Amino acid sequence: MERLKLAILISGRGSNMQALIDGCRKKTGEHGSIPADINLVLSNRADAAGLARAKAAGLPTQVISHRDYPDRAAFDAALDGALRAADVNFVCLAGFMRLLTADFIEGWHNRMINIHPSLLPAFPGLDTHKRALDEGVKFAGCTVHFVRFETDTGPIVAQAALPVLPDDTEDTLAARILAAEHRLYPLALRLIAEGRVQIHGGRALVDGKAPSPAALLNPMD
Ligand code: GRF
Q1: pTM of the predicted structure, to 2 decimals
Q2: Which of 9, 15, 17 to mutate to test the pocket of ligand 1 (most atoms within 8 A of CB)?
Q3: Other C-beta atoms lying within 10 Å of the C-beta of residue 157
Q4: Which 3 state secondary structure label does DSSP give 88?
Q5: From CA 152, how far away is CA 200, in angstroms rounded?
Q6: pLDDT tens series, the chain, 221 aa
Q7: Do 75 and 66 contact (CB within 8 A), yes or no?
Q8: CA-CA distances (angstroms) from residue 213 to 117, 129, 143, 220?
Q9: Domains of the chain, earliest start first
Q10: CA 137 to ligand 1 centroid distance, Å
C-alpha cells in the first residue's frame, strides 16, 4: 500500500504527537517502528506547547488559527488546503480541539484517525475522566478510531483498558490513561501504516498476524 504521509493536528501539549513522532523515527525493523513520514504538524493555536516539540524534532509546523476565519467551513477549507499543499495522505488528530465540518471529514474518509481518552462508545466528548468516575465504572481506557461526523464516533482500531482504582482522582486516572494512550496510538497507526486494517461497515478489522487481540486491548511497550 501507499506509504503514509502524515499530518498530525494538535491544539495543546502534544504528548500523543510525540509518541507518534517517536514511532515514525524508529528504524525499519526496530520494535514499534511505524512505516510513515510526518509531512506536517499543524496547530490551530500558536501557543500550543506541542509546536515546540515538533520543531525540536525538526518537523515542518504550521499554525492556522480558527480565529482568522469567519466560520467553520472557511477554517476547515484552509486546513484542507494546507494538508493538500503538504502532500499529506493521512491525518492523525492528537488533542485537536476543534469540531470538524462534515465536508472536511468526508474529504478524509478512512484517512483520518483520532485518540480519545475513554473506552468508546462510552463517554464521548469532554470531561471524560470526571464522568467515568461519577458513573463508578470499574474500567477506563482509551480508543483510537477512524473519524466520522458524530464526535468521537467511527470504526475502532484499538483500545487499551485499565482498572479504575478506588482512590482515583481525575488527575491520577488521566495520568494512567495518558500513559496507555502513548502506547496505543503508535500501535494503531503502525497497524494502519502496515496495511493491516480494513474497514467493513462500522468496524475496523485488524488482520490475524501479531499483535494478538490481547495486545490490542492492553498494549505493552
Ligand atoms: C489526550 O488525552 C487525547 O486523548 C485527547 O486530548 C489529549 C491530548 O493530549 N484527545 P496531548 O496533547 O496529546 O498531550
Answers
A1: 0.95
A2: 15
A3: 26
A4: coil
A5: 18
A6: 799 999 999 999 999 999 999 999 999 999 999 999 999 999 999 999 999 999 999 999 999 999 999 999 999 999 999 999 999 999 999 999 999 999 999 999 999 999 999 999 999 999 999 999 999 999 999 999 999 999 999 999 999 999 999 999 999 999 999 999 999 999 999 999 999 999 999 999 998 765 655 555 555 55
A7: yes
A8: 20, 25, 14, 12
A9: 1-108 (3.40.50.170), 115-207 (3.40.50.170)
A10: 21
CA distance 34 to 25: 8
Instruction: Verify whether ligand 1 is closer than 6 Å to residue 174 (CB atom).
Output: no
Atom 1 of ligand 1, residue of closest alpha carbon: 95
- The separation between CA 23 and the C-alpha centre of its own chain, rounded to angstroms, equals 13
Cell, residue 198? 480494513
